[in-house]
Design goal:
Elements (H helix, E strand, L loop, with lengths): L1 H7 L9 H57 L1 H8 L18
Amino acid sequence: MKRLLAFLNIDFLLNSNALKNWRMIIYLSCLALLMISSGHSADRKIFTIAAYNKDIKALKSVFVEQKTRLVNLKKESTVMQLLSDTNLGPADRPPVKIRIE
């Protein structure tokens, strides 16, 4: 009972050998703060990575959309439709190969 009362009265921090106890308490407090800080840092990194993944998905979607648009613009029918105002059209005869010997 005396030990419990001594513990509750914090006698272990006030007696002559208290320096060892204080060192341990300060060490454990610093260690706890370090672990809490590390946890918050990890959480911050996780949120940053999630935001980057969201941006990557959006950019991939834009890329696919632009690629589809480009493929549609490269079609002969689309080119002909766009050039109909300028009276340009496909050639009547195929291109001639030039051979150099």
